[in-house]
Amino acid sequence: MKYQKNTFLCILLAFMLADCYTVSAQILYATAFDPATGQVRLFKINVATCEMCPISNLSAPSPYSITGTDIVVLPNGNILSINQSDGTFLFDPPNNTPIASFPTQWFEGAIVAPNGTVYLSGNVNNGLYTFNSSNNTFSLVGAWPPNINVGEMFYWNGVLYGNGIDFTSGQLVLIQIDVTNPSQSTIVQNTILNTGSGTASIVSGTGQGIYHITSVSPFQQLSLYDIPSNSFSLVCDLTAFPYNNIEGLTSLPSGIAAEPCLCITNAGTVTGGAETLCIPDPALVPYNNNATLDNNDLLRYILYSDPNNLPGSILATSNTPNIVYNPAIMQPNVVYYLGTMAGNNLNGNGNVDLTDPCLDFSNANATVIWRPKPTVAFSVSNTNVCVGTCKTLNVTFTGTAPFTLTYTNPASGNITQTFAGNSGTVQICPPPGTPSGNLVVSATALLDAWCTCQ
Questions:
Q1: How far is Cα 52 from Cα 42, in angstroms, rounded to an integer?
Q2: What is the pLDDT of residues 242-288, one digit of tens each?
């Protein structure tokens, strides 16, 4: 019974490992140019859903670039990035600084064998190489057959293949590679595989097959290649994704988990400063037009009350930099913050998804205060005044002192007077000859410390 129980537990473990591998087997890595940042990025493609996202930036710092490269994920999770002109670089993603550089080692393709051996197709001495990740050394296994050059490589049914060129015929050819004696490698057939585009193989689990990237402007497609029929079948149309020149396709060795998506979403910045407005003038978000958005992102302009409680204190959202004053949710003489936010389009409804893990907000040093327009009221205990005498009127203001009041009556014309506080007096003195009747005193302009009312 004890032996049977242990056997049962082992079977369960085998199923769990198979399920984990099935998920990871659907992931491919590739490199592409991101026009939004001007950088070459490492990104992953889920072949089951056709979703892709950047996971690292590999084009900084200079002086190297990786345009036109192949990449290979090593059994320890590091990545070799190979370039036909700049050499070979070793990365530990998501860190974008090489942990080792080999400027004189130039290759065209790379792959990890099922037994963990790292093979590279060399365009120096035209041969098959191996890479030892324990001491970062390269070794030549052997030269290719005469007049043959091999580019991308892939495994199928335990056999290593390469797509290359037969310089004798000038044809693109599929080559079965002899890993013990590369000079005995043989041409299988002419092929439609492009030697300059990424090719990778998933050898087991869900999504197994030979994948090939076709990057012919304006189209970018991920396809499955069938050796017997020498044909492609479309897997993912990647034309709509904002990356150019997808290359360097590779699969992940068994047991290597895919890196998480890199958050490139950046809401940009706003120019700092305090803005004072008079109700109901709209506020203008001082956006610097420097956001970085991925293909599913939106940029929205926001007004919020607490920079330590974002997004919980957002009061207004706008598609334009103008934020309209809303007396139902905003108050006068209160400091509010202006900014931008960027994140995924929530269900395609035009709103930013506030649960997006890459949600980003701009800096919080642009503020606005709405001030109410000032008001004035006149009052007098006795409204009667005799011609040739003066009457004192009380004036009461709302707003922020000092106040400059311009008022008029038919007897004296326009008079401008300044008041240091929220109350004061004015005198009305109808001159001799003023006809009897009502004498109307009215304010024609009022200015407080912030706003003008006319």
A1: 10
A2: 666 777 889 988 888 888 887 888 999 999 999 999 999 999 999 99
DSSP state of 6: H
What's the one-letter identity of residue 49?
Answer: T
Whole-angstrom Cα Rg for the chain? 37
Written as one letter, the residue type at 413 is G
Task: Give the whole-angstrom CA distance, residue 146 versus residue 352.
Answer: 59
Tally of CA atoms within 13 A in the half-sphere of 307 that contains its CB = 13
Alpha carbons 193 and 112: distance in angstroms, whole number: 20
Beta strands (DSSP E) in 217-305 are 219-226, 231-237, 244-251, 273-278, 283-284, 297-304
pLDDT one-digit tens code per residue, 300-322: 999 999 999 999 999 999 999 99
User: Using an 8 Å Cβ cutoff, are 33 and 67 in contact?
Assistant: yes
CA distance 243 to 32: 6
Indicate whether 261 belongs to any domain: no
Q: Which residues constitute the domain of residue 367?
A: 273-371
| Coil, helix or strand at residue 406 | strand
Residue whose tokens read 């004798």 = 168
Residue-wise over 372-385: b if at least 16 C-beta within 10 A, else e? bbbebeeeeeeeeb
Q: Based on the domain organization, do 220 and 285 belong to the same domain?
A: no
Could you give the C-alpha distances from 265 to 44, 93, 293, in angstroms and in order? 17, 19, 5
Structure-block tokens of residue 39: 């950088």
Whose tokens are 């198979």? That residue is: 18
Domain end position, chosen among 355, 371, 387: 371
Alpha carbons 157 and 175: distance in angstroms, whole number = 14
